[in-house]
Amino acid sequence: MRKLEEVYEGKAKKVFKTDDPQLFIVSYKDDATALDGLKKGTILGKGVINNQMTNRLMAKMEKAGIPTHFVRELSERETLVKKVSIVPLEVIVRNISAGHFASRYGVEEGIVFDQPTIEFSYKNDALHDPLLNEYHALALKLATREEIDLIKKYAFAVNDVLKAFWAECGVTLVDFKLEFGKLSDGTIVLADEISPDTCRLWDSVTHEKLDKDRFRRDMGGVEDAYTEIMKRLVEHDQ
Ligand code: TMP
Ligand code: ASP
Q: In DSSP terms, which residues pair with 33 in a beta bridge?
């Protein structure tokens, strides 16, 4: 598989064309941003961890019947994926109050919900990813009704698989963000990443944060948290 020109550089990843028009290569960087890119930094080794963690978790999703863009890992930082056009929706599932849920609704972090919530935001940095509902997404033609229904079904299924797996690792899955893509034939698949950048992961006993909140909130111990969460995944992913 030959890596050709770069098609896109995001905040944490680059995407390259390959000699197969249906396949792209994703390359994970150590760059970290928060607050819409206002806060910038580096988390040493993050690219390797996020690449390997995403791939192992994507493989679990495939096993559970959730289609993904994952094809195969090429190296520590690089993965071959199916070419998709990203549906411009950030899909956020929450099991416990934290982050913007807590600040938006004026509640403390750590409230365990009776059932998970789902929300969408419009993936648009210039507009600061505004929250929207399904009617807004339809009005803006970001997705069809059928696509939104399928995305919701897959997102809750991802939650079930992820929550159960992280529990085995002594980790509580607080919330996470997913992105979906469309293959050239229109099939919806899970895309992007599933990593400590895109999930809130708390130690089940101490509630210590093992995710990017340590960077967002200047808590220190960022690299150690990424290393610890990856270690737990590898130990339990047999
Ligand atoms: P929030 O509480 O800030 O809305 O975040 C919810 C989840 O989504 C959390 O696990 C972090 C993740 N997330 C991203 O992956 N990218 C983003 O740009 C934001 C704001 C959150
Ligand atoms: N990745 C997002 C940004 O750079 C925010 C975040 O993850 O908190 O703005």
A: 40
